[in-house]
Amino acid sequence: MPIPERVGVISRSLLRENAYRSIRDAIVDGTLAPGERLNDAELAQWLGVSRTPVREALTRLEESGLVQTKPGRYTIVSPLDARVARSAQTVTAAMHELAVREAVPHLSVVELDAMREANARFAAALRADDVDAAIASDDDFHGVAVRASANPVLRAVIEQYTPVLRRLERLRFSSLNGRASVALHDRIITLCEAGDGEGASAAARDNWLSLTEVFDLEGNDETPG
C-alpha cells in the first residue's frame, strides 16, 4: 500500500527536526566541541539519516550562531565567543521579559505550582552538581510563562537563540554562580502570583541578564583563530 503523501511530508519534517535537535544538543553539551570540524556524511551516518536533513540542520544552526561554514572549505562548531553570546543574551532576555508580561494575566494556580516544582528540581540539581538536570528544570521553569503567553513568534526566537546561551550556562550551573538563579526564580513566582506583570517581567529579564557572570568566567571576548 503506498504511503499517503501527507504522512510522507510529516515523516520528512520529523527527520529534519530530529537531526537539528540532535546536532544542536551535541554542540550545547560539548559532545561536539568548539572548533570541531563537521562532516555531513559522518553526521548522517551517526544519526542514521540521509545527508539532506543534516545539511538543513547545519544551515539552521549557522543562523543561530552554533555553526560556522566556509563554502567549499569547512563547517565547524562555532568557538565560544562572548560577544556572540551577549547578543543572544540581549534578545533572549527581552523575549522572556515579554513572555512573562503577556503570561501573568493568564497564569493559573496549576501553572504557578509547576513553576515552583521546576524551581525545586532546579535547586536540587544544583546541589547535586547535575548540570543536565539543572538546565532541563530551568527550561521547564521558564517554559511555563512562554507557553502561557501563547505567542508563537517569541517562542520561535527563544528556540533559536537560547542554545547559544546554554553552552555558557553549563559553565554557570557547574559553578556557585548558578545558585543565585534559585532566588531569582522565587522572586518571579512571587510577582506572578501577585499579578504584578511589570515587576515579574523585569525580574525575568534580570534573570537572563545575570548570565553576564558567565562571560566573566569564560574570560575570553575573542573568537579563537
Question: What do you see in this structure?
Answer:
This protein is mainly α and 225 residues long. It has 10 helices and 2 strands, in the order αααββααααααα. Strands 1-2 form a two-stranded antiparallel sheet. Strand 1 (67-70) and strand 2 (74-77) form a beta hairpin. The longest helix has 24 residues, at 5-28.
Describe the structure concisely for a colleague.
By secondary structure, this protein is mainly alpha-helical.
Q: Layout of helices and strands, plus pairs?
A:
Elements lengths: L4 H24 L11 H8 L3 H14 L2 E4 L3 E4 L4 H22 L5 H19 L3 H19 L2 H22 L6 H14 L3 H13 L2 H7 L7
Which short descriptors sum up this protein?
single chain, 225 residues, mainly alpha, two-stranded antiparallel ribbon, 72% helix
Q: What is the arithmetic mean of pLDDT?
A: 86
Helix content: over 70%
Strand order of the largest sheet: 1-2
Along the chain, the helix and strand elements come as: HHHEEHHHHHHH
Q: How does the overall form come out from the CA principal axes?
A: elongated
Assembly type of the chains comes to single chain
Report the β-strand fraction as a percent range.
under 5%
Outline the biggest β-sheet.
2 strands, antiparallel
Total of DSSP H or I helical runs spanning 4+ residues:
10
What ranges have pLDDT less than 50 throughout 5 or more consecutive residues?
5-10, 217-225
Distance between the termini: 55 Å
User: How many whole angstroms does the radius of gyration measure?
Assistant: 19 Å
Q: Total number of β-strand segments?
A: 2
